[in-house]
Structures are given as structure tokens and as C-alpha cells.
Amino acid sequence: MATKIKAGIIGGAGYTGGETIRLLLNHPDVDLVFVHSRSNAGNPIYTVHTDLLGDTSLTFSDNINQPVDVLFLCLGHGESKKFLEENSVPQNAKVIDLSQDFRLGASTSGRTFVYGLPELNREEIKSANNIANPGCFATALQLGLLPLAKVGKLSEVYTTGITGSTGAGQKLQETTHFTWRANNISAYKTLTHQHLLEINRSVKQLQPGYSGAINFVPWRGDFTRGIFVSSCITTEESLEALVKLYSEYYSGHPFTIVSNETIDLKHVINTNKCLIGLEKEGNKLVVHSAIDNLLKGASGQAVQNMNLLFGLAETAGLKLKSIVF
Amino acid sequence: MATKIKAGIIGGAGYTGGETIRLLLNHPDVDLVFVHSRSNAGNPIYTVHTDLLGDTSLTFSDNINQPVDVLFLCLGHGESKKFLEENSVPQNAKVIDLSQDFRLGASTSGRTFVYGLPELNREEIKSANNIANPGCFATALQLGLLPLAKVGKLSEVYTTGITGSTGAGQKLQETTHFTWRANNISAYKTLTHQHLLEINRSVKQLQPGYSGAINFVPWRGDFTRGIFVSSCITTEESLEALVKLYSEYYSGHPFTIVSNETIDLKHVINTNKCLIGLEKEGNKLVVHSAIDNLLKGASGQAVQNMNLLFGLAETAGLKLKSIVF
Amino acid sequence: MATKIKAGIIGGAGYTGGETIRLLLNHPDVDLVFVHSRSNAGNPIYTVHTDLLGDTSLTFSDNINQPVDVLFLCLGHGESKKFLEENSVPQNAKVIDLSQDFRLGASTSGRTFVYGLPELNREEIKSANNIANPGCFATALQLGLLPLAKVGKLSEVYTTGITGSTGAGQKLQETTHFTWRANNISAYKTLTHQHLLEINRSVKQLQPGYSGAINFVPWRGDFTRGIFVSSCITTEESLEALVKLYSEYYSGHPFTIVSNETIDLKHVINTNKCLIGLEKEGNKLVVHSAIDNLLKGASGQAVQNMNLLFGLAETAGLKLKSIVF
Amino acid sequence: MATKIKAGIIGGAGYTGGETIRLLLNHPDVDLVFVHSRSNAGNPIYTVHTDLLGDTSLTFSDNINQPVDVLFLCLGHGESKKFLEENSVPQNAKVIDLSQDFRLGASTSGRTFVYGLPELNREEIKSANNIANPGCFATALQLGLLPLAKVGKLSEVYTTGITGSTGAGQKLQETTHFTWRANNISAYKTLTHQHLLEINRSVKQLQPGYSGAINFVPWRGDFTRGIFVSSCITTEESLEALVKLYSEYYSGHPFTIVSNETIDLKHVINTNKCLIGLEKEGNKLVVHSAIDNLLKGASGQAVQNMNLLFGLAETAGLKLKSIVF
């Protein structure tokens, strides 16, 4: 490729900011022009993301007025909208927002956003200018449900999902205190998780008359990375037909894979993959899905969206070595 | 107490055998007469249960013909029945079997068994001679469902439960290899877990016409001890009424406690307690329950049953310091 | 026992306060009169130590003027001295201080303190009025070194020790963030840990001419409870002679046990025990020692000291079920 | 690059075999021709290394007679020598052996081996035909000691090191049972670890008169990947001079980095890096070093050696995204 894509990151000191930096530093087609952080401006990036010592001498910048082709917003919920309203981002720069601010269709400052789940909206993404990157639980749940919705056969869903501590961010909180979280399991936001809004929106995009409920019980797990979800759905379809349905739905999608074997959470950790496993007893289908919450659930999917926005190979910079063990 | 209860343990080298030893050594009303293990006969118990170094000089015995008041069978599934058929256990010795051999009502060698869930069958247990001790998942699930069944209002149930590695026993297996299990989550026996049989039996004991299904997805967790379960049930009862129902059901039961707060798995670890938490949105009730799989889910409940069999305080020897952190 | 010992706890909301509560609630000879916490006054203890739900209905009190026989100070370093100076504690109440304020021999308000390591000072403790309870790392290290010092043969020591996250307390800190600490190891206070002062003082009590150094590298471990320490020392004594020396030194001490087998950290967790293992190659002795930092390293040892102060059995209330797994 | 290097792997079903596959699949200059495994011949690689589902359709082969430029031997200790003696590997194929069979200088079948620690022997490696890849602990320890040995100033060393469970391999063993290893620490091979032989050999290569001892206490840690080592050495050099010495020694080596900050084990996990931290008190230097035992300690270093053997950039295929959290 003759010219590289110039990328900037807003909010580079948090978890998703750090992961986006790590991905872009190794991306063959991207030049990471700046990483913005007001509080860390002037300091080398490795002073915050200490694993990057030896990998880059880039420093945080407080200057956002550097010409880029794409801007990643790695900000807290509510802050992305504010950022776009308070700063004049050149209209020719594409925006990929990792917050939830635009996932339900809001627009701001002349920018309208496409919901960036490639397995749902790949064609729209390719021609979009602004992407609302999906939530982590939303990604894991939807990838387990969309093929059924596509054929209009999704009924009521009962889901339990478990997430690692990185889902709760960098802030010090009681629920991320090591002493509390180690060897522990607990439930939170029972049946009221905010990602249900975007999940329902996607389901209805494919199956407009969907009148069921998605009953979702999120759990906090005693690990750092990853989401594992099991959804139970009543259906008369045979397991064979369902495997075929799911496999065909995802056949052109490089990161979402229907497995014939038991799936393990840790096998997707440090990758951009989603593994899907299907099981059936009587008229009950159980769909298991597993992702890395910071990659397919955040920064990896953001880079995947960038690849689509700029006509690159969808997997460019995303063939990552899994942690496996 | 003038005379202590004489207890023997068959199969003392495994996890539940070890936990039963630990409990009986500290039990104020029990004299642990022998711990049987053919392969370890003659060796000090602390050579197998190395944490007991300094706590007891008892050795394993291969002689089961020592007079006892109660015999704990800590054997693998299928082996308890075989043991009772092949050995002449004096009829005046009561038997508490921790395997699944008699949970569904089978009898052998003139012994009939009462299903030993005190929160379901306390009065029957008090006058019983033989106890079939419930399974670990079965205990956690039932304690979340029984009050609703008692009033005939249990409908279809969707449950996900997660268990620690001790649930899989001492044997070396791929799914208990540290490298695989650390930081991992996986599903197994989806909708087909063997404990569903005893759970259904108990539900129908309280709600004979129950025609719903208990859809149960078990997960393997990356911790050693404990079971956490969330069950989702449709009901028109208010949360207030449900809390009242559950609290009253368990009011005389010292180990099962309805909490008004979020419950944590680790707060019951190393105790015989079951914590219950109730939440409701719309017409969906979610019941969370947490136990230590080796105590309330096995050896602790066995000792609780022994206490009931012999007219001791139900909590004797079971006021255990939790691990908390 | 006719009358129970009346105990009070100052600073009952932290980790060591909580563990002291748990021990005293189950102690057969103690009546826990009050648990002081200004910020939580009036609230049930189980609102802070949530695992105690169902175990006690005691509430936190802001009134310290309740007659007690013994007062446990579970305060931060520097706060115990301040507390004793600012409050008039009746002189007939014995004080057991878990902070480091009096470990090096300071006295205040007419109170002088005995260093409360029973394996070093048991007789002095029995007739003392005030106890300075040892530090956690200090306990683990000293128990590995004292027998050699007793016979005047301790030379330079090279020690590495690893501690669980509870050693860092309840406060939210970067080094106790789950995301950082899980699967991580790091060193801190290299060669400068504050417990070296009390360790050196004890060594010189037994071996006054000790001129060696104790080179101690502490590590932070990815677990919650426990300390494991390995100390390397040059000595011409044979392993046989050393095992004899250590075994005899600890023969009358119920909680410190010299093992002939490899020792495991987790086998002392949730107990008041210290396991000692000795190995030798050439002229190098390696002593491994393991304790639960919150029990033998803090609250358990405090209760052991209370038992000695009041002429109870040294193990009263301290025969705890280990977590084992 | 016009033609890619053709690579084969012998023993592709174990941990180091799997990691070598993962690295070579993404290596820009390598064509992975075959992965040999007798027991798995004919099966897709992802049936064993299940995280590779979707990444490769390569199958295991039982045919080793396929022309390659380089052969990786990922076999157990003792098996590499046997393999080379029993099979006719073409002399023009270079061999990189990950076992310990040739680390001390043995040769076989006309092949002599260079010890493949690039930070010690880079020039010799570049012109070598056969590489004996260093051990994992050996790599971590040596990288902490070599600069001092280079200037002839290494004296007696006291080291403690901790390793993850992957260091013990895939085989089911008591010490890799999850129930035992979780939350545990234990010592093994105290002062007798087999890697001491290769470490001593390297030290004497740089400091021929070295007469000190390397006293090494290895610990088993409760994590899967990584090695963290702290070595204590007496020296009169100032910390400033030592930092300069280490920094200069490693200045041209892309993977070994002297950090001015506290180093974290997890920051090197899933990378080929070694982080070095230096601290000094009085005349005692403590050197901390951290590596991923499967990458810089095994397969990553093997690929680094391959890069050197074939004149590629030393970092080709090894710019890996760290797991960080």
C-alpha cells in the first residue's frame, strides 16, 4: 500500500485506548499519528501502558489538531458526544466511537453513525463515515442470536453471561479489588444490563416483529479478559438445521466461527475471534458464544471496522496470537 | 454429653472423605473411630490429607469391622450400593451415603434411604436410619426453587450454574489441568446434568402436578470451591411477596439464609451455608443461590444430617470460619 | 468455664478486625462485648463483613467505654499509639495491638508491651498485660530462623517471600486492582521491608552477637491469603541435625510444625498454623515456611496471645478447618 | 522476500510445538510445510490446538521426509538426540532443538550445536547450522547475570524464581491439578534445578574464573505462563554504574530491556521480551527478570534463532501483542 492510513486516538490512557494503541502499532497499513491524553501529555506512552516499553517511543499529546484519516474515540459513556460537540473534528476524518453514545442511532455535529457489528452491517460499514462500535456483552449475545433472527425464528431468550474484570475498566472499585474478586462469582444488573437496548435494536432490524424478551443475567467472573455467554431458546428446528443456519450465516465472516467442539473461553483471549457452539435437547437450543471483551468486544472490532471503512482486508492487523493457556 | 457418637468413614482418601474427616475431628460430639482406605491402610491420614499434619495421628485402616453408630460412605457413584451389598454392615449402624446411588429412592440390603436435604425433609431425616445425601448442584438449585414449589407456583425454570474444580474430584483429567482451567469458562452436560433427576423428584414432592422443565446449563469455573446458580422463573408474585415466602420457608433452617444484599460466592466458602438472593423485573424472578460444593453440597450436609439423625443441635460442629476473601 | 472473658475490638471494619471478630464469635471462652467502628456505628456487623449474615446480630458501636478484660486494637500503623494516648482505657484491661506501633519496644500511657510471638516469648506473654502482635512477614521469617539463632549459628540470610493481596489491606490501590494483580508477580520494598526491624530484634534476642544481614526480597502474589518464604543460609550442620534442632525447638508449640514433606502454602490457609520445611545441598540450608497472613500472621496469633494472657489452652478457639484446596 | 523459508516441526502436539506453530503461521517469511505427530497424523491441527480453529486447515503429518530449510524439534528431553540418530535428516536442513539434549555441547550425527541465547552468542548463531535452544529458567536467570559476568564481577548468587504451570507441560500430574495449584505456592528442586548446568556454562564462558555458586530456589506459581526471577548479588558497583552496564550490554538486543520502573511479570506474557529491573541497597544488588516461559523461554526464542540463522530481521514474526492484563 502506497500511503498509510493516518490514525489518532482520543482517550488513550484507558484499557480500550491501550488495546487500540497495541493493535495500531503493529497494523501494517496504519500510521498512528497521535494518542491524546490531557493528563499524560508529554509522557511516553509506555509510562502508562508499561508493557509497551521497548515497543514505541511515542508520547501522549494534548494536540488533537493533527490531520488524520480516522479518529478512535476511546472515551467514557457520554464523553464521546461531548467531545464531538466541543471540538471541531474535520469532516473528512472518519470517526470510530467505542462508547455507547451513538449505538442507538443518535447523531451529532452533522455525523450519523452506523452500528459497527460487521456480522450484521458489513456493507453499510464499508460506505460509512462514522461507526458506533458495539458493546462487549452486546457483541457476544448478538452473535449467538442473529442467525435465528435473520430467518424470523427467534423466540424468548434466557441468557447468562460472565465477564472479566477489564469490562469494569481501570478505575479502582470495590468490585475490582483483587481480594474480593479472586475466586468469587456475583451477579449484577440482573435483567437490566444497558446493552439490552442495542441487542434488541439489532434483533428487530433482522426480525421486525420480534416480540420476545431477552432475559439476561450478567455475572462478574474471577478472570481479567473475556466474555462467555450461554443462551437458551425454544425452537423446533433440528440441531443439524441450526448448525447449517449458523455456519452459512457466518461463512463469509472471518472472525466468527461455529465450532463442532466444546468451546473454551480462553481460546479466544487476545484474539478478535468469536467462537459459537450449539447444543440441543428436546426443543431447547443452547447457544454458547465466547469473545475477548477488549478485542472483538471493543478495540479489535474497532480496528475491524476501520479495515472495512478503508477497503483493507477485514483481517489486516488482526491475526493475533492467542494466549491459549 | 456423656457418650460420643462413634463414626467411621469408608473411602477416606478423596475430597469428600477428607472434608468429612476435617469436620468430624473438630466435632464436639463425635469420636472418629476409623477411616477406611484399602490403598492407604496403615499410613497416617496426614500423608494423604497433608493439611492435617499436626492435627491428628490417626492412620487409615483396612478394617471396617469396628463398631460404629454411623458410617459415612464417601465413595464414587455406583460403589456405595456395591459396598453395602458386599459387606455386612451391622443394621444398628446408621448409614450416610454421599454418592448418588440412593437419591432416587433405591434401597439395598434391607436399608431404605431418606433424601437428606434438611430444608425439604428434616422431620423424616430425624427418624431415619439411612440417608442419601444430595448432590452439590442439586442442593444449590433446589434451595432456590423449593419455596415456590411448596406453594404450587413453580413454572418453567432456566438456570445457569457454575462449579469449582473440586466438583470434578481428585482424579487427574484434562478439565482439571491447571493450564486449561485457569482463566477459563466452559459448559458441560448442557441440559442433561444427572442432578436434574433428584431435583425434579423434590420439586414434585412439593408440587405434584409440576409439568414445567428445569433447563439447566452447568459451567466449569476457574476456582476450586463453590457453586453459584441463577435461576430465572416467570411469576406474577411481587418481589415483596416472594421475599416473604422464601424467608418464612427458611426461617427455622439455620444454614439457608435469604439475603437482602447482592450475594457473593466466596462468602459461603468453607461454611455449610447457602445464601439466597432474589431479584425481580417485570414478571421474571431471578433467584441466585451460593454454596460450598464440598460442605453444604457434600460433607457439611452429611454432618448436618448426622446431627439430625442423633438428635444433636443441627449446627453442632458446623460453625465454621468462612474463608471470606 | 464459669465466666467468659469479655473482649472488645477497636477498628472492626478492616480485614484483621473482621478476622478477629470471626475468631472470637466462635471462641468457647470469650464474650465479644463490642466492636468499635465510628463510621459504621449502629449498623449490623454483617453489613460490612457480609459473610457473617446469619451468624451474628451484633452491631458496630461507637462507645468504647464498656468494661472488657481485653481490647484488640485492629488499627493502622501509628493509630494504635494515638488511640491509647487519646482515650482512657482502664488499666485492668489488657491490650493486644495488631499494629507495628509497639513491636520495637516503645511504651505509652503507662503500658509496656511484650512482643507477642509465642514461639519466642511464651513465658513473658503469659504474665504480660500488653502485647505487640508481630507482623505477618515477620512471623513467617522468624519462625524459619529462630532455632538457628537460639544455638548461635545463624549467619547471613537470603530470603524471598510472597504475600497475598490481603496483606495490602482493604483500601483500593493500583496494586490490589484485580486486573493488574491476577496472573502477575512483582517485587516491592526490595531489601527494605519494615518488618526487618522486628526480625533483627528477635534474632539478636537469641543470638546477641549476630552480625549478619537478612536480605529480604518481598513479592506480591496473585492470591488473596497466605505467605510463603524461602530462606537460604550457609551452615555446616547436617540436615539431620537441623531437622532435630528445629523439631525440638517447636516441640511444645502447637501451631508450628516441622514437616518431612514438601510444604504447600494453601495447606495452612484459614488456619493458625506455620509449616516449616528444611532442605540442604552442600553447605546451604533452605528453610521454607508458610502461614496464613491474616491468622498466624495477625488475628489468629492475637487470639493465641489472648489465650496465653488468660491462662486458657493455647489452641482454644483456634482449631480451624483449613481451606485445603 | 522472494522465497519463503520452509519449516517443519517435529513433536507438534505439545505446548512448545503449539506455540511454534502459532508463531510460524503468522511469520511473514516462513512457509510451515509440515507438523509431525505420529499419534495425531491426519487430523487437523485445530483438533489438538483448538484455539487455531479458523486459522489454519493444516493437518498433522506422519511423514518427516518433506524437504525443509529448518526443522524445529519440540520433543521431550532425551528424545531429540534419539530422533536425530534414528532418522536421516538431510544435512542441509538446519535444526533448532528445544530440548536440553545439546545445551551442554553434545553433538550427534555429524551435527554440532550452538547454544542459542542471542544475548550471549548472536554472532555464532548467525553462522550456525544447529541450535540448542536454552531452557526457560536458564534464559531468565542468565539475562539477569550475564552483564556482570562479562566484566568479570559476578560473585555468589542467591536466586528465587517462580514459574507458571505450562513449564510442567501438558501431561496430567498432581502438581498441575487445578485444585492443588490454584492459590498455592510450593518449592521444588531446591538448589538442584537442571538448568543450573547451562547457566554455569554460560557464566564461565564470559567469566572463566567464576568460582561462586548460583543458589537457586524454584517455586511453582498459581498462574499458567511466565517466569519471574530475583537474584541477589554482593557488589561494590554503584546502581548507576550497574544500570549503565546492563543497558549497554543489551543495547543492540531488541527483546531484552532494562526498565527504570518496577517490572511486572504479566507485561511480558505473550511476548518474546525479557524485562530487567535493578535495585541496590548497601552492597547488595537485586536483579529482577521476567519472561514468558513459552516464548522467550522456548518457542519465541527458537523463532528468534531461526531469524538469525537465515539472516532475517531478528524481530521478524515476533512483534506480538502482549496480553497486558
Polypeptide structure, described:
The structure is a homotetramer. Chain A has about 325 residues and is α/β, with parallel strands linked by helices. Chain A folds into two domains: about 5-130 and about 300-310, Rossmann fold (3-Layer(aba) Sandwich); about 135-290, Dihydrodipicolinate Reductase, domain 2 (2-Layer Sandwich). Helices cover about 25% and strands about 20% of the residues of chain A. The first copy, chain A, contains eight helices and 13 strands. Chain A has helices at about 15-25, 80-85, 120-125, 135-150, 180, 195-205, 240-250, 300-310; strands spanning about 5-10, 30-35, 70-75, 95, 115, 130, 155-165, 185, 215-220, 225-235, 255-260, 275-280, 285-290. Chain A has a seven-stranded mixed sheet with strand order 8-9-7-10-13-12-11, with helices on one face. In chain A, strand 1 (about 5-10), helix 1 (about 15-25) and strand 2 form a beta-alpha-beta unit. In chain A, helix 1 (about 15-25) packs across helix 8, helix 3 (about 120-125) packs parallel to helix 8 and helix 4 (about 135-150) packs parallel to helix 6 (about 195-205). Chain A is globular and about 60 Å long. The mean pLDDT of chain A is about 95. The interface between A and B is large, with 43 and 43 residues.
